[in-house]
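Subject: sequence -> structure tokens, single chain

Hey, anyone have a minute? Need the predicted structure for the following. Not urgent.
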Amino acid sequence: MRIAAAALGIAFALVGLSPLVDPRRGGATQASQPQPMESAPQALAAPGGFLALPSAAFRPHPYAVYELREGATLAVGENATTTIGPHGYRGAALAAKSANELRILCLGGSRMFGLELADAQTVPERLRAHLGAAAAQRPVHVANVATPGHTSHEVAATFAARWLDLEPDVIVVGDLDGDVYPALQGGFRDDYSHAWRIWVEQAGEPADATSLRRRVSWGNADSAQTRAQAIHTMSAKPYESNLCFLADVAAGRGIRSVWVLPDPARNTGEQEELVTTMLRRTAERIAKGRGIAAVDDMETQGAGVSAAARADALAKLLAGKVQQIAEGPR
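Reply:
Had a minute. Here:
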């Protein structure tokens, strides 16, 4: 863990990834006041959405704000649940890595995690299925280490702090539009401390029992934010810094990356689509400049509105990119 710790130190110094600020001490989290829960985007608050998840499914994390709790059971559909194993992520635990293994980690937020999908329908599981041909030449293992709600901030932090130890050969990074809602939140801070207000100990109530969203405020189309303000809030470029850090850490360890360029149409609301478009352009520019493979989520629109169908279509696109990497020089 010395390497991971050193990497995190660089992140905190250069990127602005910092432990959660305690609101009781004032400072960054005092920039804006919590809004009523009714202001949350409908898709997030609906049954199966991130806001509807029980707080017992998560626990605090010093660098990534929160993480999935081992043994937690989450409802991922009307008739489906999934359980987080003792390894701390969805799906089967990775065994000790073999010499010839191709190990793939899928990072991201709700969609990569598969919040609306049964275990076998998630992007990581469908990716594993589509890579079946590659498994004939060498063992292929795919792990779903995504966490619902995580932005580029948390993805970068958890990758450096935890997932490097899993020794991936390839990382697939999805949900690159997870920064939309922090970008639209009032009192913008480039470490996103203005948006995350969870796990705050209150009046004799332990932090772990605090409702996940009791002190979280998302901005949306009903807020006072204007289009110009939305653009201005991204001017500090924390998103770009986080992605560059993620890319640098991976490249420094010889890990290949595949990024999923977000589809603006997935986020409803004029401001949300505008910011997603900005994020997409930034991710695409960084990927091209650093030679990072990328697939376009917009290409899955033809699969229909079904979350399972789009997940399978995306996994097929990803499999093509990963297959190229697997067949390339080692």
